[in-house]
Amino acid sequence: MDNHSEEQTVRYQKNIPVRKETDVFVAGGGPAGVAAAVAAARAGRRVFLVEQFPALGGAAVNMLVPGFMTFGDGVHFLADGIGREIRDRIRAAAPERFAKYCPDSIPAEILKNICDDLLQEAGAEFVFYTSVVDAAVSDGAIEYVVCAGKSGLFAVKASVYIDCTGDGELSFFAGAESEYGDETGRVMAATLCGVWSGMEDSAVSGPDRSRLEEAFRDGVFQNEDRHLPGMWRLLAQSAPGVPDGVAGSNAGHVYDVDPRDSESLTRGIVRGRRQLQEYRTYYRRYVSGYENAELIASAPYLGIREGRRVVCDYRLTLEDFLHRSVFPDEIGRYCYNIDIHSPTNDATGYEKFITEHTGYRLNAGESYGIPYRSLAVKGLKNLLVAGKCVCTDRYMQSSLRVMPGCYITGQAAGTAAAVLCGQQETDVHRADVREIQKRLLQLGAYLPNARREDT
Which residues, 6+ apart, have CB-to-CB distance to 196 below 8 Å? Predict the structure, then answer.
């Protein structure tokens, strides 16, 4: 149950304009939303996307998450199609990133421009500073969504809607069922990322926990968090011996944050900003090569690892990961390890994370399938989900939630929406999966188990 269910209510009624009528409406401009919008628009559909932040790209640009996770399984490029295109454009724009330092770190400003270009080239319309705040449902289908922008409230009507909000907000407003957290209702801890300068290149090689216990004894941290993902190199130092390298931090946890609640998010980001100053002290005093480290900026939003998991026609589970499952309606495959950060700051939670993080991994060349049914929202005829709120258990959500996984499901959702509109069929549960797979293969998607005749 979402928060504030027992609050006093008032009746509010107002006529609002229908600002857009389109084929495909996309809520959210993160990696899933970008891929969905581009896929649908390239198929000739009218697309309208709304994004609450002033940039496309999601956590990479708005939460300053410093690095992509794996695009492939060591043998195959799994996030193929639009995901590969984005990575190739980054390589072309910043070849030194691959040649000199970390190829999986994210040049946020370059990525913003790439996402803008992709949507504009495809002909997809988009607007920033705008959020979905409600949805009107009639006879099991979304009739229109209500958006809030700088000029006020307005409605958008579409044939097919795609929820790429990360936290399943459009699905929630439409009355879809969802799951949340573990058996106690707690979700993975959040992190406030930052951008740092003054590092020596040799120091930015991974998390350095070697002196955390000493720092705890010295009272550096109010929150004694033993999980330290560390720094990603964003820009190499200019000359040997000059500690002016730039890095992005994914350091420290902010516990007990409910991403569905603005008050909880407010308390969390205040704690996160204070905590980053404690990490400044830690790096400068205790870690070699960081003596001149300086926090340039903290992200404007918390990095949220886990929110609602929307209930769809199929729920991906840990068994699918372990069995490297194959599905007849497969729309992609992925391989990232199980990565559930503890919701509690204690030894038991940290030890469980280490055990699962190292124990649930696939070998090179191995992956699990993602069925189309995990994108088709149960109980609603014209709503698909993509990104980290697709239908999974907590284990699979922790694998599929990362950016390359979001490119895969977003590309599939956009393609499915385009096929549905082209066939004048708006019931996502009756989609022509063979045609969706055919179109995905044409986009370059990795679908080794799809039938390829007539493609």
Answer: 231, 246, 247, 248, 249, 283, 293, 294, 295, 296
Give the residue range(s) of CATH 3.50.50.60 domains in the chain: 18-181+308-443
Pick the CATH number of 18-181+308-443 from 3.40.50.720, 3.30.530.20, 3.40.50.10950, 3.50.50.60: 3.50.50.60
> Are 407 and 86 in contact, with CB atoms under 8 Å apart?
yes
395 phi and psi angles, rounded to 5 deg:
-65, -50
Distances in whole angstroms, Cα of residue 343 to Cα of each of 141, 355, 445: 35, 15, 34
Q: Which distant-in-sequence residues (6+ apart) come within 8 Å of 396 by Cβ?
A: 316, 317, 318, 320, 321
The pLDDT mean for the chain works out to 93
State the pTM of this model: 0.95
Instruction: Report in angstroms the alpha-carbon separations of 87 from 83, 106, 113, 305, 369.
Output: 6, 10, 13, 22, 22
Q: What is the pLDDT of residues 229-259, one digit of tens each?
A: 778 888 877 777 777 888 899 988 999 999 9
User: Smallest Cα–Cα separation from 234: which of 212, 214, 249?
Assistant: 249
Position 176 scores a pLDDT of 98
Residues in Cβ contact with 328 at an 8 Å cutoff, skipping those fewer than 6 apart: 371, 433
- Token pair, residue 205, equals 């090689």
Q: Are 51 and 387 in contact, with CB atoms under 8 Å apart? A: no
Question: What's the CA gap between 279 and 255, in Å, rounded?
Answer: 16
Q: For residue range 339-360, list pLDDT tens digits in order.
A: 999 999 988 888 888 888 888 9
- What is the structure's pLDDT at 179? 97
